[in-house]
Amino acid sequence: MNRRTFLRGISLTTILPVTTFLTFEQLLAQAMNDAMVERLKKPYEEWRDLVSPEAFRVLFQEHTEDPGSSELNHEHREGTFICAACYLPLFESQYKYESGTGWPSFTQPISGHVGTKRDFKLIILRIEYHCARCGGHQGHVFKDGPPPRKERWCNNGVALKFVPIVDQLPALRG
């Protein structure tokens, strides 16, 4: 038995009952399965030249940026948060809120635009989510968000870009 199998077994049997995970997973599946996004077949290494080194580490090596380091924590304009690698829209600004965690947080993603998987890197079970098109790691979803969904989609700011609604852009000078 390898270490990962052992830790996975312990976390499922002693920390979180399997029924809790399945119920949570089913809720997430309902929340994001309205539409399917076609997956890009680009190898992760090809993204290295298209994003910053820090974004590459987060998106394709599953690192986490330091809390409080993202300018997107203070972004309050209307618009859309998109994947920093492939530009797939992931979150609408109306679902962004201040979670106090130091990372941009949302109450829900755009349906069908994220995928989830189990994450045992911290020994306890967490739900990791990623961009449905490029597979880039975005963050983790937790069950401690505000009502009515009680979900906190905690995102690495470097894994996102923000696109404001056009009427909020400064007027172009002629």
From TrEMBL:
<dbReference type="GO" id="GO:0033743">
    <property type="term" value="F:peptide-methionine (R)-S-oxide reductase activity"/>
</dbReference>
<protein>
    <recommendedName>
        <fullName>peptide-methionine (R)-S-oxide reductase</fullName>
        <ecNumber>1.8.4.12</ecNumber>
    </recommendedName>
</protein>
<dbReference type="GO" id="GO:0030091">
    <property type="term" value="P:protein repair"/>
</dbReference>
<dbReference type="GO" id="GO:0006979">
    <property type="term" value="P:response to oxidative stress"/>
</dbReference>
<dbReference type="Pfam" id="PF01641">
    <property type="entry name" value="SelR"/>
</dbReference>
<keyword id="KW-0560">Oxidoreductase</keyword>
<dbReference type="InterPro" id="IPR002579">
    <property type="entry name" value="Met_Sox_Rdtase_MsrB_dom"/>
</dbReference>
<feature type="domain" description="MsrB">
    <location>
        <begin position="44"/>
        <end position="165"/>
    </location>
</feature>
<dbReference type="GO" id="GO:0005737">
    <property type="term" value="C:cytoplasm"/>
</dbReference>
<dbReference type="InterPro" id="IPR011057">
    <property type="entry name" value="Mss4-like_sf"/>
</dbReference>
<dbReference type="InterPro" id="IPR028427">
    <property type="entry name" value="Met_Sox_Rdtase_MsrB"/>
</dbReference>
